[in-house]
Predict the structure.
Amino acid sequence: MPGIALDVRADVLSVRTPSLIWIGHPVTVLAVVLLPLNDHLFKVWWPGPVSGKLSDVAGLIVVPPLLDLLIRRPLVSIALTGAAFTLVKTTAGGAALATYAWSALWGPAQVVADPTDLLALPALAVAWWARGRAYPGAVRRARAVIVIPFAVLAVAATHSVPVMLPDSAYAVGTHDGAIVVAVSGGEESRPTKTVFASGDGGWSWAASGSPPPPAVQTSACVPGEPTHCYRIVPGLLKVEQSAGGLWTTAWEVSPGDQDRLVRRYEPLFPKYAGKVASLGIAVQAVPGGHTVVVANGVDGIALRSADGGWHRLGWAGTAGFAAAKAVTLNAPGRYHRLVPGIALLAALAAALAALCCAAVRSALPLAALTMLAGGYCCLAGLNTPIFFDPQAVAIGLLLLAAGLPWAVTIAVRVRIRLLASGIALVAGCAEYYAVMTPYRLWRSALIGHYHLATGLAVLLGGVTAAAGVLAVLRYGVRHAAGAKDLRTGGRGGSGDGRPR
C-alpha cells in the first residue's frame, strides 16, 4: 500500500512536472527571494533607478513559470507575460486595469505606467533560458513545490504598493521675490508636501526645497495698495476683488463647469478625492502691475498676469504647473461608471412591473423580485473601491439565474397576451433611455448640474414605468372573458395560473 500511495503521488505530481521544475530552477528561486527583499529593504535603503527596475526584472523571471502552471505552454507564457507587462507600462488604461486587478486580489494598490521599465524585458530571455536548462529531479521537484506559494505571495507583494494621493495645490505665498505654491500628495500612508516656486510671475515653476510651505490665506492685497485686495470664495472656483469698498467678481469657473471638473478628477478610491475649489491666494507686485495666484486644489492654480488676464494652469508633474495641462472646460462630462448599470436595472424593473400586471394572481412578482435582487447585488458588487466584490456578484448572478427561468415558466403557464409582452418590452427600452438621457444631456453641457440630471432621471424613469403599467392594464389584460378569465389566465384552471 505505501508503494501504491507513492506511485499515485508521483503520477499526480508528474502532470505538471515541467512547470514545477521550471519554478524550481535556481534562477527562479533567486528571483523569488529577490522580490520581497528589494521591495521592502533595497528600495528603502537605496532608492533609485536600479532598485526600481530590479523588481521588474525579478517579476519577469517569476511570472512565466507561474503562468505555465495554468496553460502549460512555455512559449505562450513568456509571450503573454511580455505583452501584459508592455501594456501596463506604456498605457494609462493598462496601468488602470492592473491597479483594479491587484486591488481586487490583494487590497488597495496602484500601478503606474512607466515606459522606462521596458528596459527589464530582456529578463524574459533569462526566464526562457532557465526553462531550457531545467532537468528532472526529485530534489528539484520538491523544492519547486515549496517555492510555489512563496512565488505567488512575492509577485503579489511587489505590486501592492501604497495608494497615491492626488496632487493638490492648497496654499500660496511669496518668498524672496518668488511666488510659492504648496502641493500635498504622496503615498496615503506617508503624505508629502512639496513647494514649487516661480520667479517669472507664475508662468514657469520648479520644485524648491528652501522655502517652507506657505500658510493658507484666503485674501491678499496688492503691495502698496491696501484698498485693492483679492479674496477667494470658499467652496467655489471663484475670486473677488475690492473696488471702492465693494467686492466684485474678478475670476470664476461657473458652478456647472466646476461640477463637471469634479467628475473629471474623480479618483479610483473616492475617500481620497481631492478638492476642486479655491483654497488659497497670494498677490505679488511685478513691473507693470501685479500678479495673483490662486491654489485650486487638484485643478492646479489660477494665474492673473500683469496685463489683467486670468489663466488656469493644470498639474504638470515635476514641472509644476502649465496652461497646456489644464482640463478644458468644454470637455465632455463623466457620469458615474455605474449609471448605465442602474439604467439597465430600472429597465428590467419597468418591464417586470408591466408583466406582473398582466399575470394577475400568479407568483410572477416573486420571480421578478428575485431577478431585481440579483441585479442589485451585481451592481453593489461592482460599486467598490476595488475591481469588484466577488461574493456580491456571485450572489447576484445566482439570483438572476434562478429568477429568470422561474419568471419565464410562470409567463408561459399563465399565457400572458402577446400585446402585454410587447408593451413590457417597449416600457423596458423606454425606461433605459429615460434614465440615461438626462445624464447624456449633462455630459454635453445641456444640463447645468449633475444633481439636476439625477433628479430628472428619477422623474422620467418613474413616469415611464407608470406609463408602461397603465398601458398593460388598459390594453394588455384580457377583459372580454370576465373575472374568471382573469383568474385562470384564459383557460380553465386554478386561481394561481396552474391548469387543473
